[in-house]
């Protein structure tokens, strides 16, 4: 048995090159993370660390108001943001990528156009849309009324039934370029002979998409889904711009990051640092836990297909 | 899907967590403490921090006045971004390169610094504090020990602004009674202007509007005292009535008011599409800048029949004060500066140059509208209740009123229900009488 050479560089040299990044990672990610964990295990008196309380802050989160009702509500909203992003943003992204795949000349142009909103800060995107959707001065309702769709004109951000979906759509508007680019790249790397073979066998274009192209895209769909999950759980700037730190109206757009922000910086509670750190840890555990489970499950599905 | 994706996922998630423990450091250089002309002792530099980035130049001129009288002390004024200030200040006061004197928030948001032992109690150091209005000093008190931790810098009052041109056009006058107030709203409702510019999409604005319109109905300072004494809570009929009044006045506000942003309401008023705006004294500068032709008046809303009080009131609150760092290296010089910050000389500069309500006794305001707002408050003061006493825990009273008010406007709850939301929310950390 011969040992396969797996690395381009000898190990000591590779470690040397990894060192700077690893140091930065340790100082700016691992250290603060460990600090947040320790913060959440202590009670606080303002800025002063008080006694070690073990998991008390987590118990507080789960058993006392306002956290007991706000935490599940915020999580549910994050989950809806994820579901919405999967349905709207990723499926539209995939369709657009597929539509552009065989159109060499248009592809570049539209890829650039669809990714443009990327370049704008999400906070700015949020404020722009909140202006566009204003029931008093917003052009969206004005246009709807002008073309006779008065019944469709809504106080989009003022109604708890529509506000969260506005957040989903605005997020999709900004990020649809992400799945578009990833799926576009994946489509470009697929072996075209597979599709040709299916075509010769008489498969319609719909059959070719569902039974040939889509299964081959599964690994990429998995990756995009996990990243979408993480982005959705971390959503902050767009919900903040559209609904403020309380998730207006009446908490309809409240998400985990807003809850964290309010708990940490918005209250006069003595133990704000302890409880807010616990919120951060819970969010972290959920993101890592679900991401790992989802990845494993997806790998199993993939194996079954291949 | 490979291991690398998992790793990427975990790494990205880790970054979230850094948010929690992110400690912004601020490298404030040691101020140039060179001895100036007229100084025969040791030169000392004092660092003063603030969240008023827009006032840096003016403050530098104001502190020039102090430096002239105290040639050995150099004041370096540093402003940090308002939204990041609290974090920067907490770090600065616990570290080694923090300020000697800093602007600190009022009421609940002051407590983390007091409890952390970052500020010095001031009553013994600044004798002039004894002359301040007691209600405004409450903004600078530690909740547990009752000591004063700041020299009040500014206060805000809440009233109704009106567009005098629109009032004249329709033959309207400042209302003397509740019926007058309703009659003028009805008159305006028949015209193409919105009577009351309100934006309820921003939750924080709802309690401001509520107190501007109904503080006298629930009893203002008397109700505050009854709550403090444990004689009642927020489900009190008088308070419920005041919430009902807010709901009754909704017909004079823009349609779909929960979809209207606070800034939309400001634009509605400054573009003369609305006749009245219930808001804080801090609006005046913006209104006049946004539309210099706007002719403004202010009034207190008369209480409806059956109110707890028989006269109108103006709600007010302390908005920031000057605190002394517990770790200052120059306590004597800092004490001298703090005492100057409590003098009418400084207060007058704040009033004239910064256009703010300095609560220092003896200060006068050159702007007639500003003077009128201040006089109305002095005659019949009331607390901006939910901000003044109910921001010492989580959830804060103003947030609760924001959410309850939005539900009220949406028709998702009644006045009783809204009052119950506030009471239930506050009971997480507050018991009447404690």
Automatic annotation (TrEMBL), chain B:
InterPro entries: Bact_solute-bd_prot1, SBP. Residues 1-23 form the signal peptide. Keywords: Signal. The keyword 4Fe-4S does not apply. It comes from the Bacteria. The keyword Ribosomal protein does not apply. PROSITE patterns: PROKAR_LIPOPROTEIN. Pfam families: SBP_bac_1. This is Extracellular solute-binding protein. It comes from Promicromonospora umidemergens. The lineage of its organism: Bacteria, Bacillati, Actinomycetota, Actinomycetes, Micrococcales.
